[in-house]
Design brief:
16% strand, alpha+beta
């Protein structure tokens, strides 16, 4: 009896540990796919409808703030311009945040200049390690934020899909980039 309860406790601990570590593994898979320039593997880690919705909402809000700041809220042409720009923005986001857009992005990075072409790069060929903070913000939400020493703006948000599966579902765009 004691052996079965110990085995059950060990199994429960193992299941809890793997469930807790699963977003870190998903993040590792995303980083590996990017490093290997494997667009298919990267696309498998992304929830495209949720990501498109997130990016559209943030860009539209930034555009609305920009139009209101320059034209004012009582300008009827500003509202028309915002609707036209919003429609164009929506089509752009639909194209870019798609499996084909990810393939194009990864393929473009394959022909981009190498990182060691940077004159500020270390002379011994070592690459600077990415500095980021990652952690849970809820039971089903895992956030990765880049740390640049000045501020922590922008983030990748992974949402749980099942017990062990996580997908990139949102990108919090830094305020400098969200404003057109």
């Amino acid at each position: 009896m004691k052996k079965t309860s110990i085995a059950a406790a060990m199994a429960a601990i193992a299941i809890a540990a793997t469930a807790y570590a699963s977003p870190y593994y998903a993040l590792h898979q995303i980083k590996t796919a990017l490093a290997e320039r494997n667009a298919e593997a990267l696309a498998a880690q992304v929830d495209f409808p949720a990501l498109r919705s997130s990016v559209k909402a943030q860009l539209e809000a930034g555009m609305a703030r920009s139009i209101e700041a320059t034209a004012g809220s009582d300008n009827p042409l500003a509202a028309l311009g915002q609707r036209v720009a919003g429609a164009m923005l929506g089509k752009m986001v639909d194209t870019m945040v798609s499996p084909a857009g990810v393939v194009a992005l990864v393929n473009k990075s394959a022909v981009s200049p190498p990182a060691d072409a940077n004159p500020d790069a270390p002379a011994d060929g070592a690459q600077a390690k990415a500095n980021y903070a990652a952690g849970y913000t809820g039971v089903n939400t895992f956030v990765v934020r880049a740390k640049d020493g000045h501020a922590q703006e922008g983030a990748l948000v992974l949402l749980r899909h099942g017990v062990w599966s996580w997908k990139l579902s949102s990108i919090e765009i830094a305020t400098a980039m969200a404003a057109p």
